[in-house]
């Protein structure tokens, strides 16, 4: 659970960095999108170590495995918690104090559903809100995030994502042995909040910039 969670957080940080290339312009963002898929003139990422276009599929397999293992771990731990939880009212105790900690499981289910929509939208192009797509990746992103309610949906989704990440980051490193003292807990908690805030700002600044015409005007 901890290891796969950290892999997914690393992916989100990388994805966020790629999205910020929208601020540089169409050429930079389109090259980035083509480079990841091995469609750029230079053969793409890890070419010629890997044949052009192979990296993205290996990356997707690893990412899918991380998501599946993360969900499997979550379901397994949930079942163990239910089995160990006393049924009598007097014996129950609330161990998780933060809202994000109490909603990790249901938050994960919500995230999974919205992730599927996100992939269908920007990867498969099956749920594009602005209509059929036949232009560049840059044009597609601009077209989608010019719709105000879609930006609002993503803003709410990212709140859920970052709440999940804040508690997940803390829990992952605590599980791996970083929660050794009060000072370590404070540092770990600060890092968890920092990562969550960086991801929220980093992911939302681009859609907001598109919505207000600062990008793609």
In words, what does this structure look like?
The chain has helices spanning 2-19, 26-36, 54-84, 99-102, 104-122, 137-145, 148-175, 182-211. It contains 8 helices and no strands. The protein is mainly alpha-helical and 217 residues long. 69% of the residues lie in helices and 0% in strands. α1 runs parallel beside α8 (182-211), α5 crosses α7 and α7 (148-175) runs antiparallel to α8. It has one domain: Fumarate reductase/succinate dehydrogenase, transmembrane subunit (3 helical TM bundles of succinate and fumarate reductases), CATH 1.20.1300.10.
Number of domains: 1
From the 3D structure, determine the CATH topology. 3 helical TM bundles of succinate and fumarate reductases
Oligomer: single chain
The proportion of strand residues reads: under 5%
Total count of strands: 0
The helicity comes to: 55-70%
């Amino acid at each position: 659970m901890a290891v796969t969670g950290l892999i997914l957080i690393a992916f989100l940080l990388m994805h966020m960095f790629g999205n910020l290339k929208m601020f540089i312009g169409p050429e930079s963002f389109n090259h980035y999108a083509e480079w990841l898929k091995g469609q750029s003139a230079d053969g793409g990422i890890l070419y010629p170590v890997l044949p052009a276009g192979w990296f993205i599929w290996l990356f997707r397999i690893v990412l899918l495995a991380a998501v599946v293992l993360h969900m499997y771990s979550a379901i397994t731990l949930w079942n163990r918690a239910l089995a160990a939880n006393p049924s009598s009212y007097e014996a129950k105790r609330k161990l998780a104090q933060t809202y994000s900690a109490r909603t990790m499981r249901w938050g994960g289910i919500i995230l999974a559903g919205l992730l599927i929509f996100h992939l269908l939208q920007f990867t498969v192009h099956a749920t594009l809100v602005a209509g059929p797509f036949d232009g560049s990746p840059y044009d597609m992103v601009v077209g989608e995030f010019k719709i105000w309610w879609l930006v609002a949906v993503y803003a709410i989704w990212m709140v859920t994502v970052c709440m999940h990440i804040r508690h997940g980051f803390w829990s992952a490193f605590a599980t791996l042995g970083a929660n050794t003292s009060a000072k370590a807990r404070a540092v770990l908690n600060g890092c968890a909040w920092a990562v969550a805030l960086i991801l929220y700002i980093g992911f939302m600044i681009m859609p907001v910039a598109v919505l207000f015409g600062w990008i793609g005007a």
